[in-house]
Amino acid sequence: MVFRKAAIVFMAVVMSFAAVFTIAPSQQVVQASSPYEKLERNINEIMADASKKSVVSSVTVRKASTGEIVYESNADRKLTPASTMKLLTSAAALETLGEEYRFTTDLLTDGYISKGVLHGNLYLRGQGDPTLLKNDLDQFATSLSKQGVKRITGNLIGDDSWFDSARLSPGIDRSDETYYYAAQISGLTLSPNTDYDAGTVIVSATPTKKGYKAKVSMTPDTGIITIVNKSKTVPKGYKNTLTIKRQYGTNTIVISGNAPLGSSGKKEWVTVSNPTAYTLDVFKKSLASKGIKFDKTSNVTRRQAPQNAVVITSKQSMPLKNLMRPFMKLSNNTHAEILAKTMGKQVYGVGSWNAGLRVMREFGQSIGLNPNEWSFEDASGMSHKNKVTSAQLTELLYLVRNAPWYRSFVQGLPVSGMNDRFVGGTLKNRLKDNSVKGKVIAKTGSLNGVNSLAGYVETTNGETLIFSVLTQGQRQKALPAIDRIATVIATTPKN
Questions:
Q1: Has 385 been annotated as catalytic?
Q2: What span, in angstroms and rounded, lies between the C-alpha atoms of 58 and 125?
Q3: Helix (H) or strand (E) holding 176
Q4: How does DSSP assign 433-484, residue by residue?
Q5: Catalytic residue among 16, 331, 380, 416
Q6: Is 439 a catalytic residue?
Q7: Which one from 16, 58, 83, 191 is the annotated catalytic residue?
Q8: For a surface tag, which of 312, 394, 458, 461 has the fewest beta carbons within 10 Å of its beta carbon?
Q9: Rounded to an integer, what distance in angstroms lies between the CA atom of residue 368 and that of residue 7?
Q10: Buried-state track 169-197, b at ≥16 Cβ within 10 A, e below 16
């Protein structure tokens, strides 16, 4: 925690610009340094325009160089941050685990190899690596094949004991569980592609012939999923009504609706129930593809590898500093929760949410954040019970600029209007005007009735300002007003 002493010395009161978009005269009290009077006036106009939407909001703007607040409105109102919660998660992870931290997945055995036979069990042991792919499992199978293994007498065993057995954070609603943003968290998990949505499979349904079911494909192929295809191919011009959802509490995925001829059909990242079993099943297929078979008495099961098990081969993930891009650019909830449990494991020896969130709270307090202004029950921002003030978010963004890992932190943030997904991220299609494109580097947040944006803005004067806009309670999305505020910050010159 090299940066903390310096950070606390330079800490200033954070900019906050929490406002109620339904503004009562007594509610909005704004103080602005005289060079920023135009900024204040322009933001006030946006908030007045939005006043009919009854949106509760909190806004703060601060100078990145000194921490001086240049605009604030309801700065200390605690609102739901949605995915701007990941700003604290990523900072805590970089500080606690280090930029070079890598997840490790091991292939082990408690037996021995003789004449093409592995006499004993084969273990796949994970540390929650969200970047583990089928190709990595194929490489594990290749490693065994090169040692001449053709048959395994024992069981295929998944060791996911790095984390506890809780699979879903409290903020996940039953209706969310089929979707990629609510994947189960396991010490042994698998991603279908390099977006690294761990614990999901990609299911595609495309039209075939009129009156016939859509063609279904799954990546990667896994036998733990049962597909129920109730879809129908319909003539060109009909509405595409395809849905792809996993039935709650099962590994049955139901595909229903119409697939019009000439359409691309539908593709969904669908969560699996039990990522450990999913990973083992895909690995068993990798072994089979290399001609490696199990005895008929062998089973696929789950338990901790014994201490005397020997590592055959291992795979390490990319370093945490590189994971920041898919994590923060694409706002990956699974990465956030995996990092929380990993922090708990690293500091307290327990890979649980309680331990991980404790580490995050202690990190925030150690750099000077006010623990009374933060409340959260997950690391991704999925829970509506998470609360924070815009003042605290901007204070966090100010303090981390002193951290040795700040470059890794800020390079993970989405950049306004940039077309490359791994640059623009969730701001790829926002703030695209030339006056603001590439000038806003910020984390987005979105839940039902909640929108937020917090980060850094380069102004027309060449100054960097820190800002946070939190909104909740709106009937319509507040994104247009939030983007107008970000544009005002970027384009309004000093007096």
A1: no
A2: 45
A3: none
A4: STTTTTTEEEEEEEETTEEEEEEEEE-TTS-EEEEEEEEES-SS--HHHHHH
A5: 331
A6: no
A7: 83
A8: 461
A9: 8
A10: bebbeeeebbbbbbbbbbbbbbbbeebbb
Whether the upstream peptide bond of residue 275 has omega within 30° of 0, thus cis, is no
- The catalytic position among 16, 63, 78, 86 is 86
Of 422, 429, 416, 433, the C-alpha closest to 467 is 416
Cα separation, 61 vs 454, whole angstroms: 10
Q: How far is the CA of 393 from the CAs of 46, 86, 91, 340, in angstroms?
A: 21, 11, 12, 19
Q: What is the CA angle 178-425-394, rounded to 5?
A: 100
C-alpha dist (Å) from residue 13 to 58, 97, 151, 420, 435: 15, 28, 65, 35, 29
- For the chain, 495 residues long, give each residue's pLDDT as a single digit of tens: 545 434 433 333 333 323 333 333 333 444 444 689 999 999 988 877 765 567 788 999 999 999 999 999 889 999 999 999 999 999 999 999 999 999 999 999 999 999 999 999 999 999 999 999 999 999 999 999 999 999 999 999 999 999 999 999 988 999 999 999 999 999 999 999 999 999 999 999 999 999 999 999 999 999 999 999 999 999 999 999 999 999 999 999 999 999 999 999 999 999 999 999 999 999 999 999 999 999 999 999 999 999 999 999 999 999 999 999 999 999 999 999 999 999 999 999 999 999 999 999 999 999 999 999 999 999 999 999 999 999 999 999 999 999 999 999 999 999 999 999 999 999 999 999 999 999 999 999 999 999 999 999 999 999 999 999 999 987 677 899 999 999 999 999 887
Contact 259/265 with Cβ under 8 angstroms?
A: yes
> How many whole angstroms separate alpha carbon 489 and alpha carbon 462?
12
Indicate if 86 belongs to the active site: yes
Helix axes of 353-366 and 86-97: crossing angle, nearest 10 degrees: 90
